[in-house]
Hints:
Two copies of one chain form a homodimer. The radius of gyration of chain A is 25 Å and the shape is elongated. The first copy, chain A, is of the alpha/beta class. Chain A is about 35% helix and about 15% strand. Chain A folds into two domains: about 25-125, Chitobiase, domain 2 (2-Layer Sandwich), CATH 3.30.379; about 130-470, Glycosidases (TIM Barrel, Alpha-Beta Barrel). Chain A has helices spanning about 50-65, 100-115, 145-155, 190-200, 250-270, 285, 290-300, 305-315, 330-335, 345-350, 375-380, 390, 410-415, 420-430, 440-455, 470, and strands at about 1-10, 25-30, 35-45, 95, 120-125, 130-135, 160-165, 170, 170-175, 205-210, 225, 245, 275, 320-325, 340-345, 395-400.
Amino acid sequence: MKITASAIGLLAAIPSVFGLWPIPTSHTEGKSNSQVWWVDIQVQGQSSPVVRDAVERYRNIINSESFLAPVDYKRGSTDEALGLETDESYTLDASLKAKSPYGVVRGLETFSQLVVVNTPISIKDAPAFPHRGVLFDTSRNWYSVDAVKHTLDAMSYNKLNVLHWHIVDSQSWGIERAAYSDKQLYSYKDIKDIVQYAKNRGIRVIPEFDVPGHTYAVGLSHPEIMSCLDVQPGWDKYAAEPPSGQLNIAKDGSIEFAKKIFKEYAALFPDNVIHVGGDEVNMRCWETDPDVQKHLAANKNETVESLLLSWYGKLHNYDTIVQTWIDSASVPNTVNRGYRAVSSDYQSLYLDCGHGAWLPNWDGNSWCDPFKTWMHVYNYDVLANITDPAKQKLVLGTEVAIWSEQTDEHSFDPRAWPRAAAMAETGWSGKKDASGHVRTTGEVASRLHEQRYRMVGRGVNAEPMQPLWCARNPGRCDLP
Amino acid sequence: MKITASAIGLLAAIPSVFGLWPIPTSHTEGKSNSQVWWVDIQVQGQSSPVVRDAVERYRNIINSESFLAPVDYKRGSTDEALGLETDESYTLDASLKAKSPYGVVRGLETFSQLVVVNTPISIKDAPAFPHRGVLFDTSRNWYSVDAVKHTLDAMSYNKLNVLHWHIVDSQSWGIERAAYSDKQLYSYKDIKDIVQYAKNRGIRVIPEFDVPGHTYAVGLSHPEIMSCLDVQPGWDKYAAEPPSGQLNIAKDGSIEFAKKIFKEYAALFPDNVIHVGGDEVNMRCWETDPDVQKHLAANKNETVESLLLSWYGKLHNYDTIVQTWIDSASVPNTVNRGYRAVSSDYQSLYLDCGHGAWLPNWDGNSWCDPFKTWMHVYNYDVLANITDPAKQKLVLGTEVAIWSEQTDEHSFDPRAWPRAAAMAETGWSGKKDASGHVRTTGEVASRLHEQRYRMVGRGVNAEPMQPLWCARNPGRCDLP
């Protein structure tokens, strides 16, 4: 399909700034600035509901966009003098072509960022990595449906395309059962609404039902299939965080339960990928469980680990993508064994780190100190130590993780943005420009400042990166 | 004056929770729970504009309060059955007495927190420290007038009583001149508005005009009285942060300028205390300045340090309170020399720490890592190592500092709250209860959770302290 946009423009002297985020694969800059006054977007040829929704959305975004990029703050008002010498010329047609409705969505975001800058003549753009996500944890603290949609909007401004929805955990089962309250869960209707909202923005929703660890909440309705449920005091011997509770891998009821929920929820979420968790299993929890002990006594060739592995094997035998987080070797290890990998290396991509410990009687630091700055996020190279192109292809991309033990909708925006935008660029644009030069944070700061102010203008409470003076004076707040 | 509040109450079974913050000096708990349905507050006897404003404000706060304390989430709906056995009794008059309008303001806040809990019969309350402040930096990033007022509201919910307004710095002179733009400064009208708003909440506004360091912004209009103005590259040899610039202490024009602005701004702010800064002066800046070098060549008995001291001496010879931040010895050192002290010990009270460095070409940590959790803030003892009661009296109190290099109104609330509330309690209630027991963070966590949810209900985007499950299950997320 083809979109044409007609922008009625006025040639005026505007400080040139090329503020696209993420930066397109290639572009050719135009020679003169145009200030765009009105945009109308029309679809020619075949269309689709996603495209029509996107066109309507971006028409509104563009026509109500009012943020001023920091370097433009001293721009004076437009000259409306009328006389013999008034320049009445106008121009600019932009044509947007794409192979899928979602390419259109991506292109419309770029177009929305273009309309106030030195307008390039031609952009050719495509993502370096197909999986660019946010691990969104609504189980540790509550997020309203509006808050989820707000996050999807913010993601769409950055061409992020996966919402890895960590929707249940020990602290709540926030989908239709065992949630905080009947006001704090997502009904099936809510989920369909959110999935459609995401789809309109070209965002896949991949839900996670973390098993067999992190499952205290299951014990509220199914205590008989649990191990080490809410051990008090002393949860710390049985779990990574309180309250303790894991599915009892020696009981058939636990695998029946797990298969049942995956069958039910897989039908609810249209994506062909579902996340089964497997995070932070605690071996002592099972070693001390009477049913596990009985099973091992009767099956001397088995261990807790082999029992766990066979439990996983009973749960599913689907093609598996591995999400890694625990160290730098994980991604190479995964692809070297032939599996596809998505990285959330905690050293760079865990955005919750550096906020102190959260047990109220312990004055300690966060386990994954320090705080990861946008520069640190941006500098992450998911292909580090992977030189074989065939193996590189197995790296699907990255996800920033925003674990919510200390975050909810009242603090999410500044926690997530603009740091997640930093990863959005390396995910979309890769680490290098066309000449092979690795982009540095000093070089990209101006554009990210602009993206931050753009996002604020669109209602996202992204935090500032620096003093405003520094945003307005690029390069003058660098480390010499 | 005397305030009476009539609350029409209904005896009902409500889980008992005593959620006042900060905790009063003393209280006697009542024996039965009352759920309060309507509050009317009347003033008897003498009144004042501050009192009338506060009464109106708290009447609205109380009658629109809708937050649910986390431990109450499972509370069912009220029994409206009507029959022979219905209990029709009602009671509760509360009488609030105070010696100043600001005692009334404090008492009304406590009353607003009481109306949904086990209602004490009697509270007697007074602050341990007279200075309990927020160092509010509107110079590194911009805050609208509404954002300033919003912060004053949040402070009033915590009985904080000083807004230390860091209103100018190198990066902007946000008051009537040299501001970011003519839309981003505080006019004298704005300031009077804010000062009155603060006064209604019993909050003093103490402005700071930091001299002679941190004054690049002065150089925009008075370059002739400056030293080391905007050295690029290499600002880091001449200043703690970019851009560099200090008042030239060898030029009479600099002291004339400083005296002029203090005279002008002292007339604008009614408090009898004004903050003259003196922070982070860089000696090399002056050592390399030609005017300073000329002065020292002609005055061989002087040094840069003595020149600086005599500059301060020319600026003012008023009674001085010292605000300390740099180490634990500062407070004892100050009071042992007979000066009054206000502490912002960075190790506990700098709330901006732990957010990484902010120079875009340097992937580093914040200089004052790690992040200070609410527990760490709460554990701070400003009287540590000061045993002489006469010296203890010289400690006026504490201020949390929220430096804004990486914060503005889009991220301020979660950055400040509820951590500043932790300091608000130690400032109002002291470290110990009446028996001499030092309150621990494990003991107070429930009440602070409740204060956090109360603040959220009142429109302050305080961040969550823990997973919601932990807030609802006190003691079950403690470190064993």
